[in-house]
């Protein structure tokens, strides 16, 4: 269970996240929705300790994460697929995957689990290519595989379908659904396109100006709410 209460985050003196609270149960799937600039990425970064400063409580399976440095939050079980993917372009696919294994708890092995190749067979073919030579969609698959390799309890995904060809988007959505439904990994997904959120997630949280303005079960996400908080 991920329990977040009154989470705030700052860029310098400016408060971009103004006290956000939500819970995601183990195996849950929360879609974080909202227009550009409302603070979705800031929320992900605050959960990981990557904002300039964050305040509030972040508890994962009873362990307090607030105040801890990013690597300790990763070891506690939070994986991250950042907006724009964040793979290392000059490192090979194998090296990028290896990096994921270093976010495991200390004492764990550093094997690249076959599961990632079952989910993304393309990665096995391209193990020795530089990450930067892959297409956008392939890099996104690499970023998700890297996050999986930390064996996290929760994966935060920030707009994984952004700028990716429709045929690959389907594959990526399938993989995210598999992570949640078959592997039992808790998912927090940031999305602008609500159709995937409606298909895959169990709950939603809508943001405006650094705050949550609505939340609930995904089937309670009415067209009226979408119109009010997401239409441009
Ligand atoms: N590095 C930064 N420095 C200062 N302000 C930032 C920075 N990153 C984001 N912001 C501001 O914080 C707010 C939320 O941004 P962000 O979390 O990226 O929104 P979203 O992901 O929902 O599009 C915006 O007003 C944005 O201008
Ligand atoms: Mg963003």
Describe this structure in words.
By secondary structure, the chain is an alpha/beta fold. It has two domains: 1-20 and 42-76, no CATH class; 77-186, 3-Layer(aba) Sandwich (Rossmann fold), CATH 3.40.50.300. The protein has nine helices and ten strands. The longest helix has 16 residues, at 166-181. The radius of gyration is 17 Å and the shape is globular. The two termini are 34 Å apart. Magnesium ion is lined by residues 40-41, 83, 158.
Intertermini distance? 34 Å
- Structural class by helix and strand composition: alpha/beta
- Write down the overall geometry: globular
Helix content: 25-40%
Major β-sheet profile: 6 strands, mixed
What is the name of the CATH class of the largest domain? Alpha Beta
Please indicate the count of domains: 2
Name the CATH superfamily assignment of the largest domain. P-loop containing nucleotide triphosphate hydrolases
User: Cofactors and ligands present?
Assistant: adenosine-5'-diphosphate, magnesium ion
What is the overall number of helices?
A: 9
Strand content: 25-35%
- pLDDT < 50 stretches: none
List the secondary-structure elements in sequence, H or E. Answer: EEEHEEHEHHHHEHEHEEH
Number of strands: 10
Strand order of the largest sheet: 6-7-8-3-9-10
């Amino acid at each position: 269970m991920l329990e977040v209460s009154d989470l705030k985050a700052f860029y310098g003196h400016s408060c971009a996240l103004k006290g956000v609270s939500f819970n995601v149960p183990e195996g849950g799937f929360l879609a974080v929705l909202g227009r550009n600039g409302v603070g979705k990425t800031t929320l992900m970064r605050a959960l990981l300790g990557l904002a300039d400063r964050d305040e509030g409580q972040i508890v994962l399976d009873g362990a307090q994460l607030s105040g801890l440095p990013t690597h300790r939050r990763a070891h506690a079980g939070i994986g991250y697929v950042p907006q724009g993917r964040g793979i290392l372009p000059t490192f090979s696919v194998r090296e990028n995957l290896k990096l994921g294994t270093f976010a495991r708890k200390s004492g764990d092995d550093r094997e690249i689990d076959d599961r990632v190749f079952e989910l993304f067979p393309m990665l096995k073919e391209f193990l020795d290519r530089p990450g930067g030579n892959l297409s956008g969609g392939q890099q996104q698959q690499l970023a998700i595989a890297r996050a999986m390799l930390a064996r996290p309890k929760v994966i935060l995904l920030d707009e994984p379908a952004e700028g990716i060809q429709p045929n690959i988007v389907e594959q990526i959505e399938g993989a995210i659904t598999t992570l949640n439904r078959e592997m039992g990994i808790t998912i927090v997904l940031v999305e602008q396109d609500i159709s995937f959120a409606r298909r895959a997630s169990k709950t939603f949280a809508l943001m405006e100006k650094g705050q949550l303005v609505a939340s609930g079960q995904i089937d309670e996400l009415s067209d009226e709410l979408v119109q009010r908080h997401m239409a441009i």
